[in-house]
Amino acid sequence: MKTIHLVANGDSRLVANQTCEAAQAAMERRVVSAVERFDARVKRAHEFDPAKGHGFIDSQKRGIEVFRSLPPEAPLIVAEAVWQYSYHVLPGLFTHQGPILTIANWSGEFPGLVGLLNLNASLSKAGVKYSTLWSENFDDEFFMQGLQGWLKTGHVTHDFSHVRAYRENDAPREAIEIGIRFAQDFRKEKAIMGVFDEGCMGMYNAIIPDELLHPTGVFKERLSQSALYAKMLTVTDEEAQGIFDWLMNRGMTFKFGEREATELTPEQVLQQCKMYIAAVRLADQYGCDTIGIQYQLGLTNLVAASDLAEGLLNNVERPPVRHTESGLELFAGEALPHFNEVDECSGLDGLITYHLWRQLGFAPETTLHDLRWGRHFKGEGVDDYVWVLEISGAAPPAHFIGGYGGATSERQPPMYFQSGGGSLKGVSRPGEIVWSRVYVEDNRLKCDLGLGKVVALPQAETDDRWRLTTPQWPIMHAVLHGVTRNQMMARHKSNHIQVIYAPDAANARRGLYAKAAVLSELGLEVCLCGDV
User: Fold this and answer.
1) How many CB atoms are located within 10 Å of the residue 504 CB?
2) Rounded Cα gap, residues 52 and 48, in angstroms
3) What's residue 121's pLDDT?
4) For residue 74, what is the enclosing H or E element?
5) Mean pLDDT score of the chain, rounded to an integer?
6) Contact 414, 261 (CB under 8 A)
7) Among the listed residues 513, 187, 184, 199, the one whose alpha carbon sits nearest the alpha carbon of residue 345
8) Distance CA 421, CA 274 (A)
């Protein structure tokens, strides 16, 4: 390879692209320098747009235009230092005939590695062949050897020795029997997945085709976010105030300010309380067992963020919502599992996991997080690679140290949340977890499962990790057993990872194998990752 073409995919939001331009440009300079060390040159396929103030592909339309001018067999690097909307470049990558290499910087700031994981998962679902690499400084041995191999062969080889196919004969019999019975009953009873508009932020990978979902016993109720907004308009101010008062009585802290554009205000939170009530009532109206709200496209222009409502929905102990006519409490004593950013793969996973954990007698609260960033930490009983798992506020308070009393709500970053609204922020408590990811590949539903633990880090380290990522969001300090950083990045088919606590290590293993049996019985191809 002598000439490598390079594209940079970005956000669809102008302010986000402008804010992230400098980080992207710095990353590209390092990538170009690394390529040139192997006597090749890089040609950028699209220029900086002075009118827009950035050099990203910022729409599907723009992506198609860029790829029209690319030689179809040219070696291609997709360089990402930012969150990106995968569908911008999917049309071009789908038909591109040359070798494709996706590259991300190892930074939690905007973040490129999360965008990379979503793009890789989307390409896997679409059946597009690609290679992938990541680096902090683009001069380390792992990156340079991988880049050199790709320049020579068009492929990068990764270590997948941590992955093995699930086999029933290798699993504990009691857990298998529980899982199979659960799956048979689950499929027989059927469930409804309420989807408030599909395809959030370009996440093609997060849409499960109906023909793959139906054999599991789950069927979509396609709802519009406009219906959610309309239902919010029917919620009274007194009802919203009641939710807010309930949260204050539980000890939750709201960090209020006065500037609507940059600070959290009571009006924004009361609007979020109305969304919470409206979501529960719509779920009841349509018989939904789980729901997902897109928010980032559409509602973001109308109302405050959905994340506070989402975190409340995922918690068993939550403010009561009553039927407008009968006055009966809806979903009393239960969470209403919510899949953030309408990620249907997490929706299926979370719904199954919630009810399976109920049957096992474990605390059933579950959530997705972004596999955001990480680094090694040594000290205070920890000597391991510790991941930063974060999501925009949808984590349940049951996961936090101190529950509601340990939870705060801060204004979401104005760059992404122009209408404001608070997060549901906390530090996840130490304990054993089962992690998972349902994904689509080879036109099949698949799932990877593994074990891990949440560790306690010093406050200074937690604060630093928040500073390097998004300080308004809930954080989980996670160690994934038997899986290195590079193995996780190479294998994981999403920017999201599903997590749930277990009472102890033995029950985490029991739950993992029961869940593997459920998913296998429902027709998914299941793999176990790391030390299980």
Assistant:
1) 10
2) 8
3) 98
4) none
5) 97
6) yes
7) 199
8) 12
Q: Which amino acid is at 185?
A: D
Please give the torsion angle defined by the CA atoms of residues 500, 504, 505 and 510, in that order, rounded to the nearest 10 degrees.
-70
Q: Which of 49, 2, 46, 56 has its CA nearest to residue 24?
A: 56
188 is written with which tokens? Answer: 């027989």
Rounded CA gap, 416 and 406, in Å? Answer: 25
pLDDT band of residue 238 (cuts 50, 70, 90) is very high
DSSP character string of 297-317: TTGGGTSS-SHHHHHHHT-SS
CA distance 10 to 159: 29
Given a cut of 80, whether residue 532 has pLDDT beyond it is yes
Question: How far is residue 384's CA from residue 307's CA, in Å, rounded to a whole number?
Answer: 31
Q: Element (H or E) spanning 193, and its range?
A: strand 191-196
Tell me the domains of the chain and their CATH numbers: 3-153 (3.40.50.10940), 168-529 (3.40.275.10)
**Four-residue CA torsion sign, 438, 439, 445, 450:** negative
**CB-CB contact of 323 with 284 (8 Å):** yes
User: Which helix (H) or strand (E) segment is 220 a member of?
Assistant: strand 218-223
Dist CA 147 CA 35 (whole Å): 8
Residue 97 buriedness (CB in 10 A; 0-12 / 13-18 / 19+)? exposed
Give the confidence band of 297 by pLDDT, cuts at 50, 70, 90.
confident
d(CA 440, CA 212): 9
Side chain identity, residue 62: R
Q: What angle is formed at CA 314 by the lines to CA 365 and CA 398, rounded to 5 degrees? A: 50
The model scores a pTM over 0.85: yes
Which H/E stretch holds residue 499? strand 496-502
Say how far apart CA 256 and CA 6 lie, in whole Å.
Answer: 44
Three-state SS string over 436-451 comes to: EEEEEECCEEEEEEEE
- How distant, in Å, are the alpha carbons of 52, 60, 155, 386 from that of 506? 55, 48, 40, 22
Residue with tokens 């009472």: 503
What's the one-letter identity of residue 31? V
Q: Write out the E strands in 391-470.
A: 408-409, 431-441, 444-454
Give how far the C-alpha of residue 355 lies from the chain's centroid of Cα atoms, to the nearest Å. Answer: 21
* Gap between the Cα atoms of 513 and 223, Å rounded: 34
Burial of 432 (0-12, 13-18, 19+ CB in 10 A): buried
Angstrom distances, CA of residue 42 to CA of 2, 30, 151, 373: 9, 11, 12, 28
